[in-house]
Amino acid sequence: MTTRNMKSTSVQCFPSEFICSICQDCFTDPVTISCGHRFCTPCLCLMWEDAHTPTCCPVCKAISPTMDFKSTILAKEHILPTRKSVVCQLPSSAKWMCRKHQVIKNYFCQTNKSLLCLCCSHSPEHATHVHYPIQQAAEHCRENLLIHMKSIWKKKQENQRNIKKVTSIFRVWEGFVNHRMMMIRAEYPKVCQYLQEEKRRHLEILATEGKIVFRRLRGNVTRMIHMGKLLRRIYGELKEMCLKADVEMLQDVGDIVKRSQLMQQHVPQPMDPQLSTWSIPGMLERLNNFQVDVTLDDKIQNCHVALIEDMRRLRCRPDHGDTPRNPASSEYTPSWGAQTFTSGKHYWEVDVGVSCNWIIGLCKESWTSRNDMLLNSEDIFLLLCVKVDDNFHLFSTSPLLPYYIQRPQGWIGVFLDYECGIISFINVAKSSLICNFLSCSFSFPLRPFIWRGPK
Question: Has UniProt tagged this entry with the keyword Nucleus (predicted)?
Answer without folding.
Answer: no
